[in-house]
Amino acid sequence: MSGRIQIDLFSSLDGVQQAPGGPDEDTTDGFAFGGWQAPLIGDDDGAQVADGMKGMDALLLGRRTYDIFAAYWPHQGNGSEADIAHALNSIPKYVASRGNPALTWADSHLLGSDLAAAVADLRDRHDDIHVIGSIDFARSLVTEGLFDQLNLWIYPVVLGAGKRLFPHDGPPVGLTLLSASPASKKGAVLLSYGPTGAPPATGDMTTQQ
């Protein structure tokens, strides 16, 4: 059976996914709210993240996210994040980049330039491939219809400007809700969606009985 591509993103209520982890993660276009997730994440949504990684056997990342992860996770073998570190450190990592970067994290590989062909190859070799963060790259996967599940952790904060998976000039995408978690203690909700192709045909509410 062909492997599955899952996209995992932390999102504000208004759809901003830029730099949830820290102030210097991504300051593109003067983004001033880096680290916005930190006050809002709790044990319950943290457990959801860890649970979602249990079947993961490959990691697919954009270059910026790869550099952040490669500088952090190889050094987190102990403490509260040890299980996540082990999960990420022990599987193959594939990196989408227009350049030829030095990939220093163990078992890291440069993704081929033909995105559709590269993703098809990964599906043949792995069962559960996760894209974490990597908004620009994730947007390319969505545009090309190269994903099977979108996992969005929605947090109760509105950020205004910032990078979004679904920008105002992005392509139309039909989705179906696969699951919805109860709200965490701090108000986060995990929503999982599957793609359905183009959005359904439009209708006219005035004709409904």
Q: Which tags fit this structure?
A:
Dihydrofolate Reductase, subunit A; eight-stranded mixed beta sheet; 23% helix; 5 helices; alpha/beta; DHFR-like_dom_sf; 209 residues; 8 strands
Detailed description of the structure:
It contains 5 helices and 8 strands. An 8-stranded mixed β-sheet has the order 4-3-2-5-1-6-8-7. With 209 residues, it is α/β, with parallel strands linked by helices. A hairpin with an 8-residue loop joins strand 7 and strand 8. It has a single domain, classed as Dihydrofolate Reductase, subunit A (3-Layer(aba) Sandwich), CATH 3.40.430. 23% of the residues lie in helices and 23% in strands. InterPro entries: DHFR-like_dom_sf, RibDG_C. It comes from Herbiconiux daphne. This is Dihydrofolate reductase family protein.
Write the layout of secondary structure elements.
Layout: E1 4-12, H1 43-52, E2 58-62, H2 63-72, H3 82-89, E3 93-96, E4 108-110, H4 115-125, E5 128-132, H5 135-143, E6 149-155, E7 174-180, E8 189-197
Parallel strand pairs: 1-5, 1-6, 2-3, 2-5, 3-4
Antiparallel strand pairs: 6-8, 7-8
CATH class equals Alpha Beta
- Our count of helices gives 5
What is the ordering of alpha helices and beta strands? EHEHHEEHEHEEE
Distance between the termini: 44 Å
Question: Could you tell me the radius of gyration in angstroms?
Answer: 17 Å
Helix content: 10-25%
Unreliable segments of 5+ consecutive residues: none
Reading side by side through the largest sheet, how are the strands ordered?
4-3-2-5-1-6-8-7
Shape: globular
